[in-house]
Amino acid sequence: xxQERLGEIFRKLRGRGKLTEDDVNAVLREVRMALLxxxxxxxxxxxxxxxxxxxxxxEAVWKxxxxxxxxxxxxxxxxxxxxxxxxxxxxxxxxxxxxIMMVGLHGSGKTTSSAKLARYLKSKGRHPMLVAADLHRPAxxxxxxxxxxxxxxPVFAMGAQEKPLSVAxxxxxxxxxxxxxxxxxxxxxxxxxxxxxxxELKEVRDYVKPHEVLLxxxxxxxxxxxxxxxxFNTQIGVDGIVLSKLDGDARGGAALSVxxxxxxxxxxxxxxxxxxxxxxxxxxxxVSRILG
Amino acid sequence: LPGRTKLDEDFWDELEETLILSDVGGMTSAKIVDxxxxxxxxxxxxxxxxxxxxxxxNLAEIMDKGDTSLKIPExxxxxxxxxxxxxxxKTTSIGKLAYRLKKEGRKVILAAGDTxxxxxxxxxxxxxxxxxxxxxxxxxxxxxxxxxFDAIKAAxxxxxxxxxxxxxxxxxxxxxxxxxxxxxxxIIGREVEGAPxxxxxxxxxxxxxxxxxxxxxxxxxxxxxxxxxxxxxGSAKGGILFAISDELKIPVKFVGLGEGIEDLETFDPKLxxxxxxx
Lengths: 292, 278
Ligand SMILES: Nc1nc2c(ncn2[C@@H]2O[C@H](COP(=O)(O)OP(=O)(O)OP(=O)(O)O)[C@@H](O)[C@H]2O)c(=O)[nH]1
Ligand SMILES: Nc1nc2c(ncn2[C@@H]2O[C@H](COP(=O)(O)OP(=O)(O)OP(=O)(O)O)[C@@H](O)[C@H]2O)c(=O)[nH]1
Ligand SMILES: [Mg+2]
Ligand SMILES: [Mg+2]
Hints:
heterodimer, A: 292 residues, alpha/beta, eight-stranded mixed sheet, B: 278 residues, 15% strand, binds guanosine-5'-triphosphate
């Protein structure tokens, strides 16, 4: 573990007197390696270890009886500082319905998270409607309908030959006329480098004017997380992140990368396949996980 | 890297960075670069372009597990079991694979062994229609082994020679789900001699270091004959495949390059390394 490795390094450095640049770099190399193995993006790791270095070369570390633990504390504090901060809430519109759009890469968990979110909001007294705006994936509409039925939430759908924009427009109209105060729009998985599909998403966003665009990110995503987050945020605009599949054993460093690159908060985490498996995000728990 | 003209610190740093950014892994990348530095000193390699060429060749060799074709002999009933964590592209890859096998003249039946997830069977049925392959399915909540068992019966009675069995996505850390998968494999083996002839792990190219753990656990549970790496049409490079090849020796057999029926290619270690280290 990082704790053990740092302990090892400081043991070797004890009795030498002053901490040299090389010593500090040895410590930072261990921190860097731990973060990389946890899938934090390399450039994020570099920025991050710079911040830790400023603290780590201070007197406190050298005077401490447990310098390894102190460095970990600095790393942990800096991580929590980066991940935490704002109170991650969903913005409910003063002028309903509140429109939430779920976006992200293929298989990240958008459809399942849409249903989980609908169930969660329903439990809070809202009247959500799900809109099946993925017209591309085979049986995507059916998938959302089956989930909607399980949680007793209406699903607006049209024929599979329709265009996403038409479904989004009609879905919004239906929600307004039926008095739903939240619309959760599922969209097709797409690559951030597929310009045609990113433009399609922009078009839907421009028409629907979502109050919340939630980027669904798989917790096991590797270095590519920064590219995904960067493109979705600059091209579409992201208001929050849903980090899915945290019930696995992936360390989840992608969360740090996404937060670092977009500055947007993780609003929810997916912790299972069932519709009740959605939780509010707690930065300290994720930080412990990333640090292994 | 393309612009570099001398083997200085910057070159080695940039090489390591390229590997890390491709998900090769922090420790693995450091080791590869250290080894390459030693080799270059001993072999007196002075040119960055030559270092890159040697590296690509060496790594391609580690990734090359020889024959990447499927072990699907004619004249016997072949069962291909497809496994992996949630959302990696199993169902889609089965559709693509069925299409490829049909084009090669095989008679394929698909088993909708994901009886858990909403509309999983419907999704596979649509692929079956696109390909022209019969799909055997039960209702949601049925026993997955029973579906596969029925597909085997159907294959025998219809004279089909390949059954591709879809399974529900499952996180390798869920012991009960891995036990269910072991049971499915046992039942297949009891019903058909020598089956499943192929057990393919489907990995998502955007996955980071966790893919190595996925491969370890799935291999331990049901033994793997090959890997399908999907979503390589994205910007992720799938670098974790190197550690998987090196440690577990599982051959990568196919690459998924899109959502379409023809977007499946045979894995080529040289092409893979060319994309990883340009
Ligand atoms: N274990 C676990 N599985 C999840 C979670 N969220 C989603 N899944 C599973 O991940 C797989 C993909 O989920 P989907 O909701 O279909 O993903 P998607 O983003 O809509 O996929 P596309 O529409 O194809 O892009 C399914 O098997 C889900 O059951 C989670 O938090 N934990
Ligand atoms: N771009 C791209 N998308 C892919 C590829 N393979 C699969 N997909 C997409 O990834 C998403 C998930 O694919 P599925 O086939 O449902 O994945 P799965 O592993 O069966 O998912 P579960 O059964 O829920 O675990 C779908 O949107 C597919 O179209 C690929 O090679 N490239
Ligand atoms: Mg979906
Ligand atoms: Mg599937």
